[in-house]
Known about the structure:
The protein has 100 residues and is mostly beta strands. It is built from 1 helix and 8 strands, in the order ββββαββββ. A hairpin with a 6-residue loop joins strand 3 and strand 4. It starts with a strand and ends with a strand. 16% of the residues are buried.
Amino acid sequence: MAIALNARDGTVTCPLDPSGATTIPATLFAASIVHDAQTGDMIVSCSPELAPAEAAKRTYSVYGKANLTDPDWTLLGTGLPWRASGNSDYHFFRVTVEMR
């Protein structure tokens, strides 16, 4: 599952329900991006937070782009939560999950 979100001006959660409902069932994966106003950092995390044994079965990768028109995504890091410094050049993010 890949999710691309722009969260420079607030918190954005992946819209999984086309009806606009904000409740996400625990069986679904959602990535969220939060802009920390105090540090300027971008924080990518996921919900639900899995037990360590379940989390160990997955590899989370965070990719970024400065502009959506850029041809390629750049791998920024693995593991969640992931934090980018406030001076990051990236404004768009994508999270992938691979089962081991």
